[in-house]
UniProtKB/TrEMBL annotation:
Recorded GO MF terms: iron-sulfur cluster binding; metal ion binding; molybdopterin cofactor binding; oxidoreductase activity
Keyword entries, A-Z: Iron, Iron-sulfur, Metal-binding
Keyword GTP-binding recorded: no
SMART domains, alphabetized: Molybdop_Fe4S4 (SM00926)
Name of the protein described by the UniProt record: Formate dehydrogenase
Organism (species): Desulfovibrio subterraneus
Record's signal peptide: none
Organismal lineage: Bacteria, Pseudomonadati, Thermodesulfobacteriota, Desulfovibrionia, Desulfovibrionales
Amino acid sequence: MNTYKSICPYDCPTTCGLLVDIEEGSGGNARNTSKVVRVKGDPDDPVCRGVICRKMQRYEKSIHSPDRILSPLRRTGAKGSGEFVPVSWDEAIREITGNWKRAIAEAGPETILPFYYSGVMSYIHRNCGDALFNRMGACSLVKTLCASAKSAGYSAVVGKTGCLDPRELAQSDLFIIWGSNMKATRLQSLPQIAAARRAGKRVVLVESCALEMASYCDQVVLVRPGTDGALALAMMHVLAAEGLVDEAFLRDGAEGYEEFAKTLHACTPEWAEAETGVPAQVIRELAREYGAAAAPAIILGSGNSRYGNGGMTVRLITILSAFTGAWSRPGGGLCGCSPGGGPYVDATRITRPDLRTNTARKVNINMLASALGGTDGGVPIRCLHVYACNPVGSVCNQQGILQGLTNPDLFTVVHERFMTDTARYADIILPATFSVEQADCYSSYGYCSFGTAYRLLPPAGESKSNWDIFCLLAKAMGYEESHFDRTEEELLIELLDHPKQGLSGLTDEEWNTLRTGGQVSTPFAAHDDWKTPSGKLMIVNAAQKFAVPCYQKCHGGSHPLRLIAVPSSETLNSIFLERDDLVERRGEMTLVMHPADAEARGIADGDAVVAFNELGEVTFTVLVSALVAQGAVAAAGVFARRQSANGNLVNTLHHERLSDIGEATTLNDNTVDVRRA
Ligand SMILES: Nc1nc2c(c(=O)[nH]1)N[C@H]1C(S)=C(S)[C@@H](COP(=O)(O)OP(=O)(O)OC[C@H]3O[C@@H](n4cnc5c(=O)[nH]c(N)nc54)[C@H](O)[C@@H]3O)O[C@H]1N2
Ligand SMILES: Nc1nc2c(c(=O)[nH]1)N[C@H]1C(S)=C(S)[C@@H](COP(=O)(O)OP(=O)(O)OC[C@H]3O[C@@H](n4cnc5c(=O)[nH]c(N)nc54)[C@H](O)[C@@H]3O)O[C@H]1N2
Ligand code: SF4
Ligand SMILES: [Mo]
């Protein structure tokens, strides 16, 4: 048995370091019979310090799952039937490139749509398809399925300034956890919150669904979904009215303070109460407490950015975080955006934008149904190539996507590890490797760290990494660039040989860690050194549609309840759905509903209900709880269709509409009504 270092490959802010125990095989093909027997957190990882979530503690169950796809498959039954037969790699590659060549010859490369998101969050395997599709001139995917409204709103105020690294929270004196289910998504920062409370510091939660986080906090403020911008404005109204603003800093160090301050008169707590459902007195007290703190930290999740007004909401909360001058004091400011340690490596060496010779047709990831249905104004998509993504479960408008995938004229390839709801609709499935069967580098997006992880096992069965497959496909397309001749290990060495500024100060020892596998901590950002064009904080930003930030309503809809789709602690989007231990813990598809909303509909806890809107109907089991805002219903996690009553998952109820800035998903911004099933 040997222990090796690796890194969690999933879309999670921590990017935990792992220690992987491998029982080495014996006999002729020893490597092929080696097995992962245990996975633990790596105590040397500067961020997780050995603490990993329950999901990854049994990573070996996923790696060696009997449900893994281990050879290329060709569809034999109807699309979606899940009937496939194994084929050789040669046949699979020939069939894929044959379809691509035909589509290019007959209708042009912009009829080919690559589709990927967050299955593997590394540098190489996440991004390496771009080089092939750039060379081909295929569609360019606008990858805004997650938190791009958040980053757009944040940088509209502070530019490229890094936010608080969560490790700095030790110095904060007040915490506002603003729309983050930290128990699910920022586990490693929870001990700091607990320690702060033991030290007498207060923790306030601003949430639309506080079910999982309420017990970690001193106070819960339940806000109507999509209205946090009004809450932030009213808090700034109180701060301004009561002389709690750091005016010296804002007049000098920010653009447009006075112009913005004038607009605050109208944003009274009473006005915000009508909008948010938060009592005016609660808003006043929260603002006063915030204004009195020296180094208050706002820990901002991404949930409230996934709205038609999401970018503006984040802009307003970011301005609030600087209103009392907190950023200039250790532990004060905003946490939850990028702490800004990078860039670490030159990602264009992977994506190769220089290989593209046409102007790309852009397709927004959230508008897959429209692109496949031909209603987005572009030429019809003929070939779809999905990898590291499960759009049937994770992208809006499930029924529209399914309709598109069933089109007999569409040729679909899915490169997967398991028979996901998307893979079932493929014409060809290619078997994918796990992170321990790949070499790659990773950076955390919630902390300042960077690391490398090398292949620990040979690919299971006939599976291949994303990189290896794109090289095979490039060769079969006749692309002769030497880029496609390398191994992923060679590409990784090239990346490390050309480091960007985020790796500039590393010691020899740290370089040794990266050359052999492991993570290094990179310097925290200096967060009162505003990385904006003028060097000042941008309260007013002329480049924005609304130069002076102001409250905008979210998309909403005509039904009485606002539906939010929140993360689940037991899974990570649709990762881990192969794991019975986790899926059973999570239980059935649940809708959290406020007692008053349940009572008004004659619904009791545990009832089967149907949530419906103009897009469709989804069956859930109701959990009645006063920890969800009145007028809101919450559905946690992504499920597999087989776990649902009628094959419909929550994203059946999600429109394709985008956010105000950042072109992001608005998956929390839909309305429904609910009746007993
Ligand atoms: N266990 C687990 N870990 C995960 C994930 C997971 O699904 N499960 N997802 C991973 C991914 S892809 C990401 S992007 C990250 C972050 O994952 P995110 O999905 O961004 O989760 P959070 O940042 O915790 O923010 C979600 C919170 O926002 C709240 N919310 C929704 N709307 C509103 C609103 O209008 N106002 C307020 N105040 N709150 C609102 C929800 O109730 C929820 O608690 O975590 C990653 N880690
Ligand atoms: N209802 C609901 N919808 C959501 C969310 C939610 O919380 N609730 N969260 C949203 C958010 S924040 C995000 S980021 C998106 C994420 O949505 P997706 O990007 O679709 O991510 P996953 O659903 O996790 O699917 C990733 C797939 O990649 C596969 N995979 C993993 N590693 C590899 C690899 O190395 N190679 C290949 N080829 N495949 C691999 C996995 O087996 C998995 O099936 O979902 C969004 N949609
Ligand atoms: S899923 Fe998140 S918390 Fe769990 S091991 Fe991976 S990075 Fe760490
Ligand atoms: Mo995400």
